[in-house]
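Subject: Sanity check before I submit

Could someone independently write out the structure tokens for this chain? I want to compare against mine line by line before I put it in a report. The sequence has 58 residues.
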Amino acid sequence: MLRWALLFFLISLVAAALGFTDIAAGAATIAKILFVVFLVIFLIFLVLGIMASEALFR
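---
Independent answer below. Compare away.
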């Protein structure tokens, strides 16, 4: 997921450098959405991992 976000970020940078502003804006928006989804999934798994380790060491 993070790899896709970085890929779309790079696409937006290249498109902006070449003057394709609409494509750059679209790719940047997709990159932002994918990054937020990555953060949410990461935080969910982090909390689940902490809860599992606490239950394991009781």
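---
OP: Matches mine. For the report I'm noting this point. Residues 21-56 form the longest helix (36 residues).
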